[in-house]
Design goal:
With 320 residues, the chain is mainly beta. The strands form six sheets. A six-stranded antiparallel β-sheet has the order 1-17-16-15-6-5, with helices on one face. Strands 7-8-14-13-12-9 form a six-stranded antiparallel β-sheet, with no helix packed on it. Strands 20, 21, 22, 24 and 25 form a five-stranded antiparallel β-sheet that branches. Helix content is 4%, strand content 48%. Strand 20 and strand 21 form a beta hairpin.
Length: 320
């Protein structure tokens, strides 16, 4: 089962008469109109469910039809070959999406291949890691602008950061999240179509994704990007599955007819890349009935002669 992309339709801001410090407008949502305040000399925009804190164009490149955005990370790959793997030329404005292969929205000569999800570009003497933008299989027709946007949702512990592709350069943090958090999606808007990737943070840079889910197994994708760890990240054979029943997560009963033990195997998790594992559970749980589940997977930060740190990560999935 492919990860679903998000198509967001939002209603635009209708700016009224400006005053000395701010402009006041209205944003329409499924739960009714919401007043917003746009600071005169700031990127802050208040909406119904949160507040935009920062908005700026994001550097992007297009390699073989795939988009990559400036992650802000500097590569530690040394030494390196001085030969570029591909050339790039600037052909669009700094806030526009480079929709054609070989095009960038900033001045650069080219790039070097790094991993399955990254390219590296020399900017002012530093090799900057560009991370692949996941379109989730969606065509980007009619989308023109690209931004890094930071905001804070009401009652959230941390700020949210997103890379946004938009049909309109006036898109805000609230245009992305207000429709998602409203009871129903707005049907028409003035901002137009948008697409976004959240910038996810974890101490070790780990995030799990479930794909090709069936009643008896899945492909588990372990993405590692950024983060701080001391040794090498590894995972083993162990996993656990829990269904959500009446709002509670409880372990799936194992097959009482088998006597089993988990093999002591370590799978290395690739750095700044995606590691794929085929997970089959029919032998342990049988075929799962339709429903909502989560899979738990232990990951270790292994360093020889030191205590191994361990964490349990979760991925949520549906059996249809």
């Amino acid at each position: 089962m492919k990860r679903a992309f998000i198509l967001i339709l939002v209603l635009c801001c209708s700016l009224l008469t400006a005053c000395d410090n701010a402009s006041i407008g209205i944003i329409g949502g499924a739960d009714g109109p919401t007043a917003i305040i746009v600071g005169k000399e700031t990127d802050k925009v208040k909406g119904k469910f949160g507040e935009q804190l920062e908005k700026k164009p994001v550097r992007m490149i297009n390699v073989d039809g795939e988009l990559y955005y400036d992650s802000g990370y500097v590569s530690k790959n040394t030494p390196r070959c001085g030969t570029l793997d591909g050339k790039l030329k600037r052909a669009v404005a700094g806030n526009e999406i480079p929709l054609k292969s070989g095009v960038a929205n900033f001045d650069t000569e080219g790039y070097q291949h790094a991993t399955g999800i990254t390219k590296e570009v020399n900017i002012d003497g530093d090799w900057i890691i560009f991370k692949k933008y996941d379109t989730h299989g969606r065509k980007l027709d009619n989308l023109k602008y690209c931004y890094y946007i930071k905001g804070h949702l009401n009652n959230a512990v941390k700020d949210s950061e997103i890379i946004v592709l938009s049909e309109n350069d006036r898109v805000t943090f609230n245009d992305i999240y207000d429709p998602l958090l409203s009871s129903t999606y707005p049907l028409e808007n003035g901002i137009g179509n948008t697409h976004h990737n959240p910038i996810l943070y974890d101490e070790w840079g780990i995030h799990l994704y479930a794909e090709d889910v069936t009643e008896s197994g899945m492909t588990l994708k372990i993405e590692q990007f950024g983060g701080e760890y001391s040794g090498s990240l590894q995972t083993g054979e162990w996993f656990s599955i829990e269904p959500c029943t009446d709002g509670e997560w409880k372990p799936v009963p194992t097959n009482p007819l088998i006597d089993y033990a988990w093999l002591q195997i370590a799978y290395l998790i690739k750095s700044n890349d995606i590691t794929e594992l085929d997970i089959g559970w029919k032998w342990l749980y049988g075929e799962l009935p339709p429903g909502q589940y989560r899979l738990k997977k232990e990951i270790s930060d292994y360093t020889p002669d030191k205590k191994t740190d361990k964490k349990v990560y979760e991925v949520y999935f549906t059996v249809e």
